[in-house]
Amino acid sequence: MAKLDLHLSGPDLCTALVDVSSVSGTEQELADAVEDALSAYPHLTVSRHGNTVVARTELGRAERIVIAGHLDTVPLNDNLPARRADGLIHGLGACDMKGGVAVGLRLAATLTEPNRDITYVFYDCEEVEAERNGLFKLTQTDPELLQGVFAVVMEPSNAVVEAGCQGTMRVEVTTRGERAHSARSWMGKNAIHEAGEILDRLATYEPRRVPIDGLEYREGLNAVAISGGVAGNVVPDLCTVSVNYRFAPSRSEAEAEAHVREVFSGYDVVVTDSAPGGLPGLERPAAAAFLQVVGGEPQPKFGWTDVARFTLLGVPAVNYGPGDPLLAHKQEEFVPEAEIEQCEQRLRSWLTA
Does the active-site annotation cover 126? Predict the structure, then answer.
């Protein structure tokens, strides 16, 4: 089993984490190492849930906050082991999000008397289907472990606060026609041609810009795939346009679905995937205190993250971690050592002030 020394510097610990391969579904070795390392600290109560590790302080503080990070990565792309150069750590998962996990582990090991009780959650399968996500499973089996006044999900955010997240919905919009030989096309009805109106509606669609807590969330409705066709000499009788709707967190999934059905009125619409957005909750006292210490201008999160799971539990949450989210999942992903150290220092200041 891999061994982790949680008293290494943040960058050194990140490098060690990157070198333990943990592609989604294969996190057991890393989860074992995390559990073993955290279990050595008497100020933590550690529990294991599949390949998710939870460590909690039990100091009777007036408030509890949650710090969460996922252990898994996307598949290997000739980017292991870790490589360090010019103040950067390169390698699979360095940015998304073992730099953030290193920060969380360092805090868990060294903050023996924080000013708030803290729940640390290091979970599996974030990069794959929602039903496999370790944090999602905890919301179903042990939601009390995720309760708190505020949560920080340590997704890469360039070491600035990205608050809340967009909701996401995928739908299939289908047209139907009648097959015919393409040499006698007037005998049928071309379903692909019929899809032109769907694309026209998308091309003229004007997405909303929605202000929430002083942040502007931009929505989007886009075709992401189109399928249809039978053979090179057949007029097709079926065409499906796959559409992704990214919506502001003030809109519920039911409201998002109703809006999409209104846009594509007259067509068959099937929802294939959906996840709610996450409200930023920046007006909450714990969030305000966090922002005061972290500094900078908070930004809206354009994309979906697990902060939405905390929103469903009534816990406001933000994304805050080292690394550029635009590098996530890229072969050349890296994380700056300075951002790992900066995130740790700022979180430590917030939790000890």
Answer: yes
